[in-house]
Write a structure and sequence with these properties.
alpha+beta, six-stranded mixed beta sheet, 7 helices, single chain, Fumarylacetoacetate hydrolase, domain 2, globular, 18 strands
């Protein structure tokens, strides 16, 4: 390929990535390394394949009532995001109650039930109208939080990664492809119970920023890629759990997610 053709091809690929959902270039997969690092994957419903996790993005305060209980004004605050490491994933099979270890360093451990979008395409500056084309499927997830550490670091105006981004802080059920769900969930009940008592109870339609808008906003700051997960926010009434508590999470159209804190 001559230089002119190469430049033309590169420009076309860049334009495609900017204008909408795009597939990234192939990463070098045959590099020699001194040791192996386990890949994080999630089961896909109806398939023997597994979804490879690249990054986990989470949106903060995306339901108005939850924003207010956390001390912010949902009518004025733009969306903000944080990340968890990919190995924070804890896979939870439907119909089971998985043991979930109470983490170290905290005395105020909180649940947050969320709809999770799993991407199979990415790009930069994705228009909201094209954003859902990037979504492979959806799952139910928990954004587990060491609230005392999060608040303590926030009070010191320091990053509060220690409160959000720790081992097993992202329990998740299997991913349901969009085709299997019959579309993209935009409404439906989302609730969480602790020991049978309802704690969170809302509707997906109450999100401040839709999944499509979240993808569009994220793609302005990061180049999204296949394998990215987006935890799309939690309703109000987040709260603590202790050892022995059983969490039951529900989103209409998805199997429940169950954990026992041990």
């Amino acid at each position: 390929m001559d230089r002119r053709s190469l430049l033309h091809t590169s420009a076309a690929m860049a334009a495609g990535a900017v204008s909408g959902c795009a597939l990234p270039g192939q990463a070098q997969s045959s590099a020699k390394t001194p040791f192996e690092v386990a890949a994080t994957t999630i089961p896909i419903v109806g398939s023997d394949q597994r979804f490879p996790v690249r990054r986990i993005y989470c949106i903060g305060r995306n339901y108005a009532a939850h924003a207010r209980e956390m001390g912010s004004d949902p009518t004025r605050e733009p969306p903000f995001f944080f990340q968890k490491p990919s190995d924070a994933i804890q896979n939870v099979a439907p119909g089971t109650v998985a043991d979930h270890a109470y983490p170290t360093l905290t005395k105020n451990y909180h649940y947050e039930c969320e709809l999770v979008a799993a991407l199979h395409k990415g790009g930069r500056d994705i228009a909201p109208e094209q954003a859902l084309d990037c979504v492979f499927g959806y799952a139910i997830g928990l954004d587990m939080t060491r609230r005392d550490l999060q608040r303590g670091m926030g009070d010191q105006k320091k990053p509060w990664e220690i409160g959000k981004s720790f081992d097993h802080s992202a329990p998740i059920g299997p991913i349901h492809p969009v085709a299997r769900l019959g579309g993209h969930p935009a409404k439906g009940s989302i609730w969480l119970k602790v020991n049978g008592q309802t704690k969170q109870d809302a509707d997906l339609s109450q999100m401040i920023w839709s999944v499509a808008e979240q993808i569009a906003q994220l793609s302005r700051a990061f180049e999204l890629q296949p394998g990215d997960l987006i935890y799309s926010g939690t309703p109000e009434n987040v709260g603590p759990v202790v050892r022995g508590d059983v969490i039951d999470c529900h989103i209409d159209g998805l199997p429940n997610l169950g954990l026992k804190i041990v």
